[in-house]
Amino acid sequence: MLRRDELVAEITERGGDAGAEPEEAPEPKEPPERRCEAKPERERLEDTETEDVVGVLEVTPQRYGFLRFGGLEAQPDDVYVSASQIRRCELRSGDEVGGPARAPRRGERHRALVHVDRVNGGEPPTEERRAFEDLTPVLPKRRVALGESPDVLARAVDLLTPLALGQRVLVTAAPRSGRTTLLRALAAALAAQEGLELIVLLIDERPEEATAWREALPDSEVVSATAELRPEDQVRVAELALERARRLAESGTDTCLVVDSLSRLAVASSSAGGRGSDVAEVKSLFGSGRELSEDSAGSLTVIATVVDGAEDDGAAERAVVTTESSLIALDPELAAAGVFPALRVSNSRVSNEDELRDANELDAIRRLRSLLADLDPAEAAKLVRERIEGSASNAELLSSL
Predict the structure, then answer these.
(1) In a 3-state reduction of DSSP, which class is residue 318?
(2) Are residues 181 and 100 both part of a single domain?
(3) In which domain, by residue range, is 269 found?
(4) 282 and 359 within one domain
(5) Mind listing the pLDDT tens digit for each residue in 53-109?
(6) Which strand (E) or helix (H) includes residue 203?
């Protein structure tokens, strides 16, 4: 959210064209084929030099918006989008919007979008759009195939808590328990999945850590609300990343949002002030994970961490702990002892497992869990690693039991 002085400046700087008009009474409903047209404005700006831009829209409470670029933070080169364009084209926060932008005029601080050419990679909508909340959530059944991944951690997760599109995956971790290593391994394996869009959201993270993530995932979107940002800006970036993921799912894309961490989001939300409960943002983000039944829709998978001993005093974990589809528990004692993967096998679980495994696999995994239950946590984790390294795939591993 913009600061008050920025909002005042944005309201007062605009004068009369491309998105510059003040708020007026709602216009009569226009026919769908006319909603995104701006012919008078186009004719008026025919001789104006423009640059084609594509960015993610953030709609402000004042109903105008800005196209954000890169990491979704507010920047001087963001592009202003008028309230009338947003209304006519039925745009939402998180939409990827493209079109020509003109340079700022005297007294203006930002470039302005002349007209909307593209929305989420296609033509602007000509029919009323259904909201994400109005789409139908169903049980996640489409399993993500990680059983042949070359990464031990990705295979361990597939073995013990298989991933499916639309899940809400909660990773519980203490400091120095290997959560970053686990998240990067999962993110790399998911980035290699065909047809899956990956967004990584880092909250209150060190800038160099954000750089390391981008280097590890050069073809995926890494959004970082880094530690130097004010809490309200961290929350704003997190909200926009979530809205982007929702728009992708609405438009038919299978999307995965990896979040580190919900605990830091709770702290930022609480510190921001005036934004409701410190867990409201946490519940909204994590609860957005779902498989959608409509043919035109995709899915939104959320993989998020909560950190034991964080400043939120466990508020984030308490807010979501009964809503997860899958739980991955990391053990700091195993990590300190050099045991890898540092998974606490007995505490990790997945809901509706019979929908994700066939009968033979279910029988085999139950035998494996019975074997692991008789071992202490370190021995169980070591055995999992040995079995994974001694087989080419999880299917081969389970068939040998």
Answers:
(1) helix
(2) no
(3) 137-399
(4) yes
(5) 999 999 999 999 999 998 899 999 999 999 999 999 999 999 999 999 999 999 889
(6) strand 196-203
Overall size of the chain counted in residues: 401
Residues 142 and 123 in one domain: no
Q: How far is CA 313 from CA 57, 202, 319, in A?
A: 34, 20, 12
Q: Is 87 helix (H, G, I), strand (E, B) or coil?
A: helix
pLDDT of 148-174, one tens digit each? 999 999 999 999 999 999 999 999 998
CB atoms within 10 A of CB 46: 6
Whole-angstrom Cα distance, residue 132 to residue 307? 29
CB 59 within 8 Å of CB 91: yes
Q: Distance between CA atoms of 123 and 33, rounded to whole angstroms?
A: 11
Predicted confidence band of residue 44 (pLDDT cuts 50, 70, 90): low
Both tokens of residue 87? 């209304």
For residue 14, give both structure tokens.
């605009």
Tell me how far apart the terminal alpha carbons of the chain are, to the nearest angstrom.
55
Distance, C-alpha 380 to centroid of its chain: 33
For position 70, what pLDDT does the model report?
A: 83
Q: How many domains does the chain have?
A: 2
**Per-residue confidence (pLDDT) for residue 38, from 0 to 100:** 45
Instruction: Provide the whole-model pTM.
Output: 0.89
